[in-house]
Amino acid sequence: MSQKTEKLAREILTLSRNILLVNLRFMDMALSRLTLVPAPGMPLATGGKQLLYDPVHVIKRYAEEKESVTRDYLHTVLHCVFRHMYIHTLVDRELWDLAADIAVETIIGELGVSAAEAKREARQSAVLSELREKLKPLTAEKIYRHYQESGISKKELARLRKLFAADDHRLWYLLPEEQSEEGQAAGGSDKDGSDKNGSDKDGSNSDNAWSRRAEAERIWKEVSERMQMELEAFSPLGGSSTGGLEQGLKALNREKYDYTAFLKKFAVRGEVMKINDDEFDNVFYTYGLSTYGNMPLIEPLEYKEVKRIRDFVIAIDTSGSVSGDLVQAFVQKTYNILKSTESFFSKINLHIIQCDTEIKEDVKITSQEELCAYLEKMSIKGFGGTDFRPVFERVDELIRDKELKSLKGLIYFTDGYGRFPKKKPSYEAAFVFVDDGEMAPEIPSWAIKLVLQKEEI
């Protein structure tokens, strides 16, 4: 390949990047992150560090439709922003490739950059309209799950791949050391000093490839978080055109919660009948046995102070906007965590309160057996509007009557649209939402917000 061809292709890609920088200033870090590396036979590809490209392919694409090169460049960078290549558990690679391509093509279309409006956008519109009716926002994870659950034929998968594909994903599925070799074979070298044989200057091989991959993923996480901050701060500049991108970034960067660890925050200290190894003096015990035969000088303590849950309240919003199946699944999930001996004291005082605009049911549970029986016969009551205040008034009443003596907190499962108490209660209150693609409603400053995925419940 002539140097002239390689130079021309690099100029085309550089021009595409500069056009995008002018139109999408909030993406400056992302667009300038990848190093351009010529790689004959690889149309356009990245593993997160370099942008490999076939010079002949780039020139042909530009000659046919110059906007397609700009769109392809943005397409590949957005894969990095959303960290689509850093997957670990998904097994259907073809389906993930399609989901990731649909997600970034959707965002590009919404951004409305005229220099990236390629002809393929019109051919994609019917598919995107159908998906938008079912999914919000159109993230790769949601799209993947949708096609996985609904089923998609090999023929349809291949058809959609042609509509949305813009780059090569082969580097996504290589081991880190194989990615390094791929880049070096293309003529590139890592910034940390690796040579083209895959060895570092100190003579070691690619043992640190995994750490370099982790570092690249961390950098792209920082890039996406900065993009999110800039979009939120300067949203008037972007207008509604950045809405899909902003929603996708919020879903991507949303803190992941461990519901089990979250429930432990509501535990209180108490004593249980259990050998306390921490306070047992083994020296005196063994000395007594060796001196007096079967008479230890000190016996192990038969009780231990631990933090477990005794008093607890689960409030359920039974308004018409909350799914009954999901409510039951949430209570079952909470029970599965609480029923372990490490979470519950042997005697518990659990109130499960159903409420829409008024209290519909308040069931007291004192044992695991009662809770299990309740779940078997549980029915949702209400389906009116939403008012959170009656639940807090009921709990305050239970505290005054000494029905709840050591209540640490209350968990309220809801969609969030209702009337909140004006004053902070004397206990912690957490509102649990299910991520349905929409932004969870604002809650009072004194409350805790927890957003869970449906599959977590």
Short description:
The protein has 457 residues and is α/β, with parallel strands linked by helices.
Supply the key terms:
single chain, elongated, alpha/beta, 457 residues
How would you sum up this structure, described in words?
This protein has 457 residues and is an alpha/beta fold. Helices cover 46% and strands 15% of the residues. It has helices at residues 3-23, 28-31, 55-64, 66-81, 93-111, 120-132, 140-150, 154-164, 176-185, 209-233, 235-238, 243-253, 259-264, 282-292, 324-338, 368-377, 389-400, and strands at 35-38, 44-46, 50-53, 268-273, 303-317, 344-355, 359-365, 409-413, 428-434, 448-452. The strands form two sheets. Strands 4, 5, 6, 7, 8, 9 and 10 form a seven-stranded mixed β-sheet that branches. It has a three-stranded mixed β-sheet with strand order 1-3-2. Strand 5, helix 15 (324-338) and strand 6 form a beta-alpha-beta unit. Helix 1 (3-23) crosses helix 3 and helix 5 packs parallel to helix 8. It is elongated and about 85 Å long.
Q: Give the count of helical stretches.
A: 17
Order of helical and strand elements:
HHEEEHHHHHHHHHHHEHEHEEHHEEE
* Shape category: elongated
CA distance, first residue to last residue: 56 Å
Stretches with pLDDT under 50, minimum 5 residues: 189-203, 269-276, 303-307
Would you tell me the structural class of the helices and strands? alpha/beta
Largest sheet: 7 strands, mixed
Strand tally: 10
Strand content: 5-15%
Gyration radius, rounded: 29 Å
**Percentage of helical residues?**
40-55%
Name the quaternary structure: single chain
* Whole-number mean pLDDT: 80
